Amino acid sequence: MIKIINSINKLPSELIDIIMNYYWMDVYKNTINTIDSTIYDFNKMKDFIIKFIINDSGRVYTNYHLHYYFKKYNKKLNEIIKDKGKLLLLKRITMLKIDFNNLEKISVYNQIDYKIRLFAILSISMSNIQRYVLYSNFKKFKL
Fold it and tell me: Given 3-state DSSP classes, what are the helix, strand and coil percentages for the chain, each rounded to the nearest 5?
């Protein structure tokens, strides 16, 4: 290993920069892919919430064909919340002020089925004046 470092140090600085860029790019590629996939997943959730929940808030409970996505996105949010880095990224992107670690203490959210609870909370927080309609529709779920 030391021989490699010594031989690299004998190279011109332009070549050392190129080699080090490739090295560090490979080291941080996994982190960058994780950030990109988290942002991509959240953008899909956000578009889904705007299109099918906020724009059609009266039919949240009756759109049975969308319930699969409610559970799918809730599962994805559970994965994000368990990873502190992803959670901080989500809070930074969405400007959410929800403390997901202490949701059990808030009894209002306990009335929503746990299979869609996180997704419902995100949807309610993203909606503005429709939050009470969304809350009552999400309370009706018994999956």
Answer: 80, 0, 20
